[in-house]
Amino acid sequence: xxxxxxxxxxxRSQLSNRTGCNIETIRYxxxxxxxxxxxxxxxxxxxxxxxxxxxxxxxLRSRExxxxxxxxxxxxxxxxxxxxxxxxxxxxxxxxxxxxxAKISDLRRIERLLARTIAQCSGEDVPECPILDALxx
Amino acid sequence: xxxxxxxxxxxRSQLSNRTGCNIETIRYxxxxxxxxxxxxxxxxxxxxxxxxxxxxxxxLRSRExxxxxxxxxxxxxxxxxxxxxxxxxxxxxxxxxxxxxAKISDLRRIERLLARTIAQCSGEDVPECPILDALxx
DNA sequence: CATAACTCCTGTAGCAACTACAGGCTCAAG
DNA sequence: CTTGAGCCTGTAGTTGCTACAGGAGTTATG
Lengths: 137, 137
Hints:
2 copies of one chain form a homodimer. The first copy, chain A, is 64% helix and 0% strand. By secondary structure, chain A is mainly alpha-helical.
């Protein structure tokens, strides 16, 4: 009369499939407190539900948008406290956007430099490449 | 009659100052084989010279351009073998440029998304922010 | 019903590319 | 001669995962 079949709920692999999140990463997010500890079966298996799916999607989406773990922690805080306002969210998001724009312009600078250098390179079988010269200089 | 004054050469802090490289990073680069082991004084102090300055500058410049440690190892290999050709260098550099361009377009996608979302946000003191909605959806 | 194959559990080690610290010497100056 | 700086070493921490080892439970097939 033991209930060895999960009455309802998703196991880790199912949550993984639903969200596309690596199965090990789920446990990792739990360990660092981004995901709440789910209830367990009598044998200790994790049992997730739709709230976990939503929360994990939130986390994954935020990561995709380049938020760091701590930034996400902050966003989740706002969500959990349920007293978020547009103003608060903007406050967190705008500096992040600024960071991303800074990264983009960094990379574009690098791109221009690299492209220019490669263009100077004959691509022939001769030694003394202008790319290396640019690196050494 | 012991020579306790370094006859010639730079200590770690001086190499650090000349190149702007963090002093601990220098030892790190030595450990992983990007920098050669320098000669030592009788008491074990490292003694660098101008070749080390040049090599470290090469490494730092390459890092700035976004090359990973292993890519730099490859470039240094070419330099050391002294048989590099333009063609070889281009071969290593072009895929790297492609990577950087890919990163840029990723970031720009994120930037557009984030900027659009923030624009929808009233910035007022009301709850239910479209940014969070975008994240949850 | 036995056994193989699968999933789950835990803790821990590894990746990049550093950075920082602890504990011990050496060295130059006052 | 003592003080403080700078050097030495090995090791741990950082961020965001990913992967493995070793054990327990569960499912499928003969």
